[in-house]
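A quick aside before the break. I want you to see a complete sequence-to-structure record at least once, exactly as it would be stored in a machine-readable document. Don't worry about memorizing anything.
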Amino acid sequence: MQIIVLIKQVPEMDRVKFDSEKGVIDRKSAGVEINPFDLNALETAVQIKEKVGGEIIALTMGPPRAEKTLREAIARGADRGILLSDGKFAGADTRSTSFTLAHAIKKIGPFDLVIAGEMTVDGDTAQVGPQTAEYLDIPHISYVTCLDEITALSLTVTCNIWDGSYRKRLHLPGLITVTKDINFPRLPELKNKMRAREVEIPRWDFSTLSDVLSPEDTGLKGSPTQVKKITIPPPVERKGQVFSAEEMEKALAAIEKICREKQISGGQS
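That is the input. The structure line, written in C-alpha cells, reads:
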C-alpha cells in the first residue's frame, strides 16, 4: 500500500510568543517541531504498513529548515520524504496549501491512502486535509479515532463528531484525518535515526510542479483569505471579596429565614 502522510513543521506553542502590535506569531521566538497531530498520522501509517505492507512517504511544504521535520518522520517510520520549498509557496492559506499539496501528490504518482493530522496547533482550522482530498477528487473521512478493518481496497474506521460516534468504510484511494485518540506515537529507534541522517531528501520547488501549477494558484497569490491580525484575550484574574464576621452572620441569618419561609409555604418558589 502506498501511503502519503502530510507533515507540517510548527512552532513550539508552549514557548512561542505573539507580537501583539502586529497581530502575528513571532515564529523566531521558539523552536520548531512536528505538528503533534501529524505524529498520530504517521503512527497510523506505520501501523497500517505493519499489517498490509507498503511504503510511507512523508510530504511537507515549508522553508528549507523543514527538512529536519522530514528526517524525524523517517526516523519514526516513514520510508522517504519530500520537501516542497520555494518562496512562491510562502504566505499560503489553507486553500493554497492544500491545492499545492494535492498537485504534489499527483506528481508523486499512484497512491492508496493519504493521512493527515486532525489539525495543526498553529492554525486549528482542520481544513487542509479535507481540502486536499477535494482537489484530489477522492473520498475522505475526518476525525478518525480508530482503525477497525484494513484491506487492500478499503478501510473501516470509527470517527467521533460532536456527541456521535460513527463507523464508516472508505474505499481507496482516499484520505483520512486522525485525532490524538487514535494511538500513542512510538519513539524512533536508533537504527532509524541513523538512516534518517543519511537519507537524501528531495526538494521540490515551483519549477518542479510548474507543469501542473501556475503562480496564481500558489502562495500568497493563490490565497483568497489572509490573517490580518491575531488578538490574544487578556488573562482572566480570579476575583475575591473579604466579608467581616458581622456581614457573614447577617448573610447566614437571611439564608435561614428564606429557607424557613420556603418550608412553611410548602416548598414553592
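Two observations worth writing down. Helices lie at 36-52, 67-75, 94-108, 128-136, 190-198, 206-209, 245-264. The longest strand covers residues 140-150. We'll return to this after the break.
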